[in-house]
Design brief:
Layout lengths: L2 H21 L4 H18 L5 H12 L2 H18 L3
Helix pairs in contact: 1-2, 1-4, 2-4
Length: 85
């Protein structure tokens, strides 16, 4: 699958999922764990299409689980905010 075409779609889906989780009253920990699993899937199954995506993948691969959870949380928060502006 060509990630370049799906990068923005993936961010929209992640942001929408975070919004739904918040509306459903899910705890941030649950939302962050879901974002972590999505981030892991994303990093393991898609090739980066640009420098930004390569950087995200590099950071993901270098991080330990706690750092990956932080990165996933930040990505989820940024995606959710982007969907509301």
């Amino acid at each position: 699958m060509e990630i370049g075409h799906n990068w923005h779609k993936w961010k929209e889906i992640l942001g929408a999922a975070v919004g739904l989780g918040e509306k459903a009253g899910m705890e941030n920990e649950t939302i962050n764990n879901a974002a972590f699993r999505l981030g892991d899937f994303f990093a393991n199954n898609f090739d980066p299409a640009n420098d930004e995506q390569r950087l995200m993948k590099e950071l993901w691969e270098q991080g330990n689980d706690e750092e990956k959870k932080t990165l996933a949380s930040l990505m989820a928060r940024a995606s959710h905010k982007a969907n509301h502006h």
